[in-house]
Predict the structure.
Amino acid sequence: MAHAAIRRERRTTRRTLRAELRRRSAATRLTASCRRRPRSLATVAIAAGVDRTTAAGCANGLRTVAKRLGVTPAATARTRRTVAGGRAHRTHGVSRYTLGQVRILIRAYRPRKPEYVAAVARIATLAGGAR
């Protein structure tokens, strides 16, 4: 019986280690994709390690700054996925920002909420801009 308990414990440990490895590799892939091509402001914030609700609020503030500065995002066509895993027939336009544009925005953005201040600092670290 002791052997079965040890085996079960090792299996559980391996399962948690695999889950952690999947989580870390997904975060690394997301960060790399933000460096390679334009992404949405919320995606850049999430890649920097900001939680989703704070990322959404921070992205709204950065969009306002973009309007004020006249920074226009790149318009990209995106194809939606269907429920069955295929692709839909119609594409729709989405706005994506490069990391260079994100650097400009975070220099001009002055958030007041402490969560947003911390989020902008993390985004600045990802984007390589001085804050």
Notes: The first strand starts at residue 74 and ends at 81. The two ends are 58 Å apart (CA to CA). The mean pLDDT is 88. Residues 2-36 form the longest helix (35 residues).
